Amino acid sequence: MDNQQETWKQKNSHISILLIAINSILLLVFVNIGYASENQQMLNIIYLAVGFTILLAGYAFSYHGKGYRLGKWLFGIALLVCLTLAGLLWYVTELGKAFSH
Q1: Spacing of C-alpha 37 from chain mean position
Q2: For residues 81 and 52, is the Cβ–Cβ distance under 8 A?
Q3: Model-level pTM?
Q4: Which pLDDT tens digit goes with each residue over 10-32?
């Protein structure tokens, strides 16, 4: 019974990874559709990073065990990248305000 449950868990994990990949591709398409100014493109990149981080967080916190440790590492890396991008966007925005006078 335990072996069958682990098999289902592995199968669901693979489906989750596939759905994360598909949703990430859809987010990437969303970022590149239509005319966008430079400011909007930067904001779209932040949306992409936040969306990918949220999807990875759902995966990392749903599956427990040694076999799913990579998901937690990828979530940590994605969170660092997302926070770095948000910090850089904030910094550039404040720098732009300083030079507007």
Answers
A1: 23
A2: no
A3: 0.76
A4: 888 889 889 989 998 998 888 88
